[in-house]
Amino acid sequence: MSMGVKERLSPSSFIGVQGDNIISFGSGQPDLPPPPEAFEVLPHYRDFRYGLIQGMLELRQALAGQYPHSTPESFVITNGASEALDLALRVIALGDGPGDRKVLMTRPYYYSYPETAHYAGLEPVFTDTLEGRIDLDDFRTKVQDCRAVIINSPSNPTGRVEAVDTLREIEKIASDLGIYVLSDEVYKDLIYVRENYLIKGPRVVTINSFSKTYAMCGSRVGYLWSLDSELIASVIAMKTHTSMNTNILGQQMALAATHTPITFIEDQLEVWRARRDLIYRGLLDLGLDTWRPEGAFYVMPRVDHPLDFVWDLFHDHRVITYLGEWFGSPGRIRLSYALDLEKIEEGLGRIGQYLEERGSGSSSSRL
After folding, report:
1. pTM for this predicted structure
2. 280 with 290: CB under 8 angstroms?
3. Which of the residues 126, 154, 199, 316 has the least number of beta carbons within 10 Å of its own beta carbon?
4. Residue range 293-347, pLDDT digits in tens
5. Domain map (residue ranges) of the chain
6. Which residues pair with 223 in a beta bridge?
């Protein structure tokens, strides 16, 4: 890479990059295997016709058993959680509702949120966090003229989990204002500190996928759930003229995954917890200041000169990390610990070597 490329670094510079002795703390893709039940579909599957736009009925029936007061009509099966978010935002942007054409999101944020809002014709508005968690005072101020808010707990990129009391207060604020809450819960089964809290309300849209819990990223099966039947109908209408049905084989594999014993998720959570503990302690031992992850599989340390840090680590030490500024958090980098313990230790060793060569550690700059 030339110096010009350094200045133009983006997530696309690293997504899919592998081999050549590279240790990647970059993309958030589970390296653990999907459940065996998902593979049992493959040898005998033969149906590749168009499917229902709303999604396979049997899959929606299975999901309805996981959400209160739901029927299969409460769901739309989508091409990953990304399409669910995109469709929900575009439908909200087209409809009538309180507030301006603004959508509130926390900062740091998942790097696609602002762009997805822009594509929907909405204006992103940011509420900054305190130690990676929502500041309710700032939230109350910023939300007043918004049409929707996006909540992501556990969070990508911070790994933080919002307090239940905070989520309940957001429910009340949103209900009082009559605005939509888009709750991105793709990491809901990867929480180390408590059970997941499902945000409730008449205008709540919960977004999830089979990518993280079941390590099925490439099958591109996600979904949205809402008790707002008008929104569901509008999402289906829009999807009819955009992507049409979601991956039929992927949906069948997702249905099989819903029959996986709970011990599969519990066992994988313990793997993630061990990795979390290793990378968190390792970064602290290297002198890097970071929040302790409480869910998902990300950690976000503060560093000096982040662009140099990310560039030099990759160019000289074959270690991929992501710039915090891509997530609205300059002064930090994001590391995914979706790799085995041996590779985490090797990666930490290379980071330590780099810091020793550079002669500096963490930065004093804050959000």
Report:
1. 0.93
2. yes
3. 316
4. 999 999 999 999 999 999 999 999 999 999 999 999 999 999 999 999 999 999 9
5. 3-33+262-358, 37-257
6. 77, 208
